[in-house]
Amino acid sequence: MIYDISPPITPDLAVWPGDTAPTREVLLDMARGQHLTLSTLHATVHLGAHADAPSHYGHPAPAIHERPLQHYLGRCQVMRVCVPRGGRVSVAMLNAPIQAERVLLCTATFPDPCAWNADFAGLEPALIDFLHERSVRLVGIDTPSVDLSDSQDLPAHQRLLACDMGVLEGLVLEHVSEGMYELIALPLPLVGFDASPVRAILRDLPRR
Fold first, then answer.
1. Using CA atoms, how far apart are residues 171 and 99, in angstroms rounded to an integer?
2. Which of 6, 29, 87, 132 gives 163 a disulfide partner, CB atoms 3.0 to 4.6 angstroms apart?
3. Phi/psi zone of residue 192: left (φ > 0), alpha (ψ -120 to 50 degrees), beta?
4. What's the domain count of the chain?
5. Which CATH number characterizes residue 123's domain?
C-alpha cells in the first residue's frame, strides 16, 4: 500500500505569507494546435511537502544538494500528538517509544493546505535533542514549519542544525494511521538552494 503524504501543487496551495505561490506558464500547448505542451513553473522551493536545507537557517551550512539522501529514505514512524494550536510539541506529548530513525508527527493544526492559518503547532527544541539522542536522523511535521509562525530566532530549526538532522515540513498525515512505514521523500539536487519540494510517500513495511 502506498500513502501519498504530499499536498497537490495548485495555485491555491498556501505558502508562507510573502513567499512565491505556484503558478504555471504554458509556453506551448497541444490544445492550441502546437506540436507539444511545454510549461514553466514559478514557485518557492518551500512548496507543499518540502525538505529544508541547513542553509535555510544557518550560515555557513550545506545547501539541499549536499544533504545525504539516507535522511529521506527508509524506515519511519508516524505518531499523532495532542498539541494545542500555536503550541509546541514536547517530549511528554509523545504517545509511544521511538522505534525508527525517521519520525513524522501529525499535529492536525494545519488542516487545509490551501487555507493559511498562522496558529499551527511547532516543535520544542528539547524534543529535537530527545529524538537525536535516540538516533533519529529526520523529523517531519504536518505544518509549514517546525517553528511557530511568528518565531524569529527559530529555536527548533537551530537544534536541527546543531544535531545535523533532516526535516520535512508541509506533510499531509491525517489519512495515515500511526505506526511503522517506509518513507520515500527525496529532495531534488537543486544546487545551492535552501530547500526542495518532495513527493513524500509512505509504504507499508513487508510482513515478517
1. 20
2. 132
3. left
4. 1
5. 3.50.30.50
Task: Report pLDDT digits (tens) over 19-49.
Answer: 999 999 999 999 999 999 999 999 999 999 9
- Please identify which residue in the block is written with the cell numbers 508527527: 105
CA distance 11 to 148: 24
Residue 22 domain flag = no
pLDDT tens digits along 130-170: 999 999 999 999 999 999 999 999 999 999 999 999 999 99
Catalytic residue numbers read: 56
Q: Could you tell me how many residues make up the chain?
A: 208
Is residue 14 included in any domain, yes or no? no
The answer for residues whose C-beta is within 8 angstroms of residue 10's C-beta and 6 or more apart is 22, 114
The H or E element containing residue 40 is strand 38-42
Q: Give the span between the Cα atoms of 187 and 203, in whole angstroms.
A: 18
Domain that holds residue 114: 2-6+45-204
Residue 19 lies in a domain: no
pTM of whole model > 0.85?
yes
